[in-house]
Design brief:
Layout (H helix, E strand, L loop, with lengths): L1 H16 L4 E6 L6 H10 L13 H5 L1 H4 L5 E8 L12 E2 L8 H19 L5 E4 L7 H7 L4 E2 L5 E2 L7 E8 L18 H5 L5 E3 L2 E2 L5 H7 L15 E3 L3 H4 L19 H4 L3 H5 L3 H7 L9 H12 L2
Parallel strand pairs: 3-10
Antiparallel strand pairs: 1-2, 2-7, 4-7, 5-6, 8-9
């Protein structure tokens, strides 16, 4: 028991040193409450063309299947709130994509944390995850007390709002487990009221197939004409539900230089976006998450939102 407490403290201290906002730990076990929610969400086709969400149903709900022998889920938050923003009169991309693709940055930090655990605690087996595997990141972060899931289905904390990434290490080591915090959304419906495509269909349930982020990133076909005029100039992702959330008044700028926006991108006018060439796209977004939509996808989005 003494070692469990000491090891937990060591891991949380190192996570802080590596720049993570916070670290919470929960027992690796079947997510009983999430199972019917995920099943209903899929049965109602709220994943749209994201067919990969239907794969590995059991692994999504049970980390001991995903990582055999696992005992603990170490959840981590990393701030990405920028100190500089795009001008209000241009086409917008989601703030998480301003700088270098977060997958590279977080995976590197998780690798360092895993190495630290092996060196300081002993031989520990596990895997690192950054939203690219069948793991319900937000459910684990909430279970480990890092915040609560808001009505917009994103993680929220009283101290810094919601502009952060969620990642985890699933390991075969017993640790001290944290407990969930209470929900602090109350009667507020700011995110539901502000969503221009009515994608937030009920408390904590987002119809992914109606979300602007889905249309501008995940959807490979043409965007339905029924959505014309609803995107409010978003061409990659969307931050509307986060921007209107009262808890994001407490967002503080990150201190990760690689998340800083590309200067060229910050100064782009609507005209610059409309005239963007593939060469400029490759130069500005060389290491950015924006590359996911490819040049063809970005120009499709620009043409869809322009007057």
């Amino acid at each position: 028991m003494k070692n469990t407490s000491k090891n937990t403290s060591l891991i949380k201290t190192e996570a802080k040193r590596l720049g993570f906002l916070s670290c919470g730990i929960s027992k690796a076990e079947f997510l009983e409450e999430e199972a019917p929610r995920l099943e209903n969400w899929l049965n109602n086709n709220m994943n749209g063309e994201m067919s990969y969400m239907e794969n590995h149903f059991d692994k999504r709900l049970d980390p001991t299947i995903l990582v055999p022998g696992s005992k603990s889920v170490i959840s981590l938050l990393l701030n990405y709130y920028p100190s500089q923003r795009q001008p209000s009169d241009t086409y917008k991309i989601s703030k998480y994509a301003y700088g270098t693709d977060y997958h590279f940055i977080i995976k590197d930090k998780l690798k360092q944390l895993m190495q630290f655990i092996s060196e300081e605690i002993g031989e520990v087996h596990g895997r690192a995850f950054v939203d690219s595997a069948p793991v319900l990141d937000k459910a684990w972060a909430a279970k480990s007390g890092l915040g609560w899931i808001g009505k917009h289905s994103l993680m929220l904390t009283k101290n810094v709002g919601s502009f952060f990434f969620v990642a985890e290490l699933i390991v075969d080591m017993e640790l001290e487990y944290d407990t969930p915090v209470t929900d602090h959304c109350g009667t507020c419906t700011a995110c539901i009221d502000a969503c221009p495509t009515q994608a937030i269909v009920s408390d904590k349930v987002v119809d992914g197939s109606k979300c602007i982020s889905y249309y501008t990133i995940e959807l490979k076909n043409e965007i339905p004409t029924s959505e014309k005029g609803k995107f409010e100039d978003w061409i990659f992702g969307c931050d509307i539900c986060q921007d209107v959330c009262p808890w994001n008044r407490f967002s503080k700028p990150h201190n990760q230089p690689l998340f800083n926006p590309y200067p060229e991108m910050l100064s782009m006018t609507k005209n610059d976006w409309e005239e963007i060439t593939e060469e400029v796209f490759q130069k500005i977004f060389k290491k950015s998450a924006v590359k996911r939509t490819k040049f063809s996808g970005l120009t499709r989005n620009i043409n869809f939102v322009k007057d």
